[in-house]
Description:
- By secondary structure, this protein is mainly beta.
- 13% of the residues lie in helices and 50% in strands.
- The chain is built from one helix and 14 strands; from the N terminus they run ββββββββββββββα.
- The strands form three sheets. Strands 4-3-7-1-10-11 form a six-stranded antiparallel beta sheet, with no helix packed on it. Strands 2, 5, 6, 8, 13 and 14 form a six-stranded antiparallel beta sheet that branches. A two-stranded antiparallel ribbon has the order 9-12.
- 22% of the residues are buried.
Amino acid sequence: xxxxxxxxxxxxxxxxxxxxxxxxxxxxxxxxxxxxxxxxxxxxxxxxxxxxxxxxxxxxxxxxxxxxxxxxxxxxxxxxxxxxxxxxxxxxxxxxxxxxxxxxxxxxxxxxxxxxxxxxxxxxxxxxxxxxxxxxxxxxxxxxxxxxxxxxxxxxxxxxxxxxxxxxxxx
Length: 171
């Protein structure tokens, strides 16, 4: 992590909806501050990277920080954060989420999802990053929105089921 870096992670909603909650994980390199200073932004997609000129700041309320009791790979104390939001999102489009803390010593935790993220230094040169960022978006129905890697798994399960039914009907 280098001060001034921002990370962006992709997502796609299946249909138009309103995001009602954002949950993410991360930690502080130094002792955590008593007050978090997060900014959550959405970006449209531009050829597989966030369109940095399209930033939409997401207003949020009821931010909670919960100590997970774990320590991250870089020695930071890990927390889970939840914020209430009301952000309409257009479905079917690749979009990007960025979460940053104004203290300069906070690091967004990684997730096991396979979708690649990108980072910038001082807001320029979006560079591919092999580690995925940890977040969950909850839509108006209260259902978590899967990250892109989950869609690949759902698609392969659907194809397997269709092949099974086809084979069963052929008998």
